[in-house]
Input
Amino acid sequence: MRSIRLNMFLSAMLILTASGIFAVYGAKIAAHEVAKTLVLPPSGPAEVINLNRYLTRLVTDRKVESAFKIPSIAESEFASVLEARGPGYTDRTIWYRAQVKIVDQPGRTGRSAFIDIGHVYLNDIEISILSNDARQIIWQEHLGDRIPRAKGGLQNLSHVAEWPKLSLGEYWLVIAANTNSAHVFEAELLPDTALIAKSGSNSFIKGATLGVLLLAFGIYFAFGVMSGDRSVLWYSGYIFSLFLISFGVTGYAQLIFKPFWSLASDFVTGTGTAFALGTSIIMWSYMTRLDRENRPLFRIMIGYSVLAMAGFLTATSDWYILYAKVFFGPQIFLLAVLLINLMYRGYRQKHTFQMSYLMVALGVPTIGAMAHLLLLIGWLPVNGFTTSIFALSSFIQLVLVAIAMAYRTYGVINRRVDALASGQRADQLASEQRTFITMLSHEFRTPLAIIQRSAEILGLHLQKEPESVLNRLSTIQSNARQLSGLVDAFLTKETLDSATFTTTREAVAIDAFLRDLIAQRQREVPGQNISLIQSDVVIVEIDRILMERALINLIENARKYAPGAAVWISAERAANGYVYIRVVDEGPGIAADDLQNVLNAFYRGRDSVKIQGVGLGLHLTKRIIEAHDGSLSVSVGEEGGTTILIKLPYDRDMTVLRNNENRTGFPLGYTETLYSGEQP
Output
């Protein structure tokens, strides 16, 4: 118990430490001093400038219709971009402003500069530079993922516009932005050389990230299919969701599809987000074995996930704002529930290392995902840390889960190897067992036959002996016959179970076959009332030995369960190409509860406790009939009595030939009538 608590404590401390690092680092980034005025040379900056340090944001609900009104609004109504919470999901236009002062800076060349605005899924961005008195627009540019790109405009993974050359003086920089996605705004002002370098590095990093995600998806999907592990399959789905999000957020969707589909960025990003919400919950539910440990909670998780993934239908509309407000809060809560549930189970279970590892693997990305969601809904400020925490935690998750999956796959492979070895050993033991039973059965047959024959001979010579002696002799005969039938049953079963089993068929006249079988049985068991009430002339291709065994099983079954009762056998041919053989007894019948199970191996009804047998007779008969391409069914009459119906295909040509040869004088009620229907 001490080790369990220690591991849980260490896991919790690791998660708390990660949370502390995130919080401290995030606060440090957020604590940058906000500058009041952006000072630039006429041609733009010589280095990269983070505009978020200079921009303030209008966060009031008052409606602003024009950029000309922004400079006149009181400073108190604006908030710093770096220090204040983001707007979250809103359909309102968000306004940004900064004072710009253009001064002469000796040594500055006249090279171009650019303004770079993210995130790429912002729908509509209007950038304006106004005169100091806000009466004149000096320069204006219109950007956004739904704004058609101008001919000859810059093609980039983000929204980029060339910064104008301004005269000396003071200006207002005013930016209006709206979107149907999360309002996460970042802006940079950078020289052309820095833009080229940034574009190249971004293209490489973002492309490599997409490649890694796509490769990871393929690997985990293949592993999931091969192993049948649902947690791996859902994890591959989650990785694909991250790929879609990255494909949209990095700007590749806009760059590739925007010329002919302006909604591509919104659709890809929104779809990826919706699928990530659902697949992450399902993945962690399976990975933490919630489906086995807590089924009610698991069903809640699945229901929520299905609804969350359906949110992709709103990705390109303003309904996505409502979808995000409804689902992002519960997502944070459910992630916390999964983490708490895992911590509780880890505390109570013995697999401390595994549970501790899962806690870290779930805890770290959960913290990152929560922080990211809090940023999107506007509860955290927009800064370098909050915008990168999700990517960082996702990378950590990929590494940790990759290790966990490798360990899990290794365990699955080992278990399958062990199972295969155990299966091979079991097959070997089963084969040896069958060989032993077959050998033993053969060895039993000879002494049993001797006992039976000796008892028959003694019975002929001892007819004048006292009744007690004859009864003992009858007991010997009965038990020897029982043992002989049991041996035959086991040998028949081993024959049918053999992988090389085939029937050795020959053309047999079913009428003569049944007469001979009944006569043989009456000799072996004197006094048994067996009658052949009808037998059509039918030629059937059967394995004579197996078919004899099958019918003897039925007759013997009637004798045991209906002692003294009459047994009737009939064979009728039908126009459908089948002969129907019935074995009917006048016994009490089979109980309704037993009727559906009597054909199963080793099944014995509730009334068979005092009756000798192992429950193989009807089962073996059914298998023999099926081996002859036939079928067997059991029914009970309303007043008792059991009917066994055997359906066998017969040879039409040979049957017709036999009928023509024996058209006259045929005994046993021969008829030319060919019945139709399943049950003549």
The chain is about 50% helix and 15% strand. Confidence is low (pLDDT under 50) at residues 21-33, 663-680. The two ends are 74 Å apart (CA to CA). The longest strand covers residues 169-178.
